[in-house]
Amino acid sequence: MTATCREACCSVTPRLSVTELFERGFRRLREAPRAIAGASCRGADGNTAIFSLDIADGRIVAVGFHASCCATLIAYCEYLVEITPGFQLAIARELTAANLVDSVPGVPALKRDRAVLAIAAFRAALAAADAPQQGAPIDESRLHLRHPAS
């Protein structure tokens, strides 16, 4: 007998409509960015999205985003914000645009390409989390020998 996975990625999340996700996401747009910000991504139609993350012990603690005023894009971004806290970074990297399209019902076929932009912006934030943080204080005390007699 095997136990059920209790990781955040395997927990069942209710399916929300585009309207519900847009309303939540539109309110979230006013929040301040998190500690680690990814690069801004732009779609072919001019929409933009950027994600920011708080990470602790290799897990996503909190996610924020800013996106242009496309209801579908905001809904996709909000879905990522709601499901990814608690994910390990390796698991979060495996999310795809197809996962978003399958998880957010009611998106017209012409607007499903917004999922690609949302995933690209989310992955840019994950890449920024992997890169050494610029401007972080460097502890140089380990680089210098200290003489007790001095």
What does this 3D model show about the protein?
The protein is α+β, with helices and mostly antiparallel strands. It has one domain: Sufe protein. Chain: A (Alpha-Beta Complex). It contains five helices and four strands. It has helices at residues 18-28, 71-83, 89-93, 97-103, 114-130, and strands at 36-37, 41-42, 48-56, 59-67. Strands 1, 2, 3 and 4 form a four-stranded antiparallel sheet that branches. Strand 3 and strand 4 form a beta hairpin. Helix 2 (71-83) crosses helix 5 (114-130). The longest helix is centred in the last third of the chain and has 17 residues, at 114-130. It is globular and about 40 Å long.
SSE topology sketch:
Layout: H1 18-28, E1 36-37, E2 41-42, E3 48-56, E4 59-67, H2 71-83, H3 89-93, H4 97-103, H5 114-130
Antiparallel strand pairs: 1-3, 2-3, 3-4
What sequence of helices (H) and strands (E) makes up the elements?
Answer: HEEEEHHHH
Q: What spatial form do the alpha-carbon principal axes imply?
A: globular
Roughly what fraction of the amino acids lie in strands?
A: 5-15%
Q: Sheet bearing the most strands, described? A: 4 strands, antiparallel
Q: How many structural domains are formed by the residues? A: 1
pLDDT averaged residue by residue: 83
Q: Helical amount among residues, as a percent range?
A: 25-40%
State the total count of DSSP E strands: 4
Q: Find the CATH topology.
A: Sufe protein. Chain: A
> How big is the Rg?
19 Å
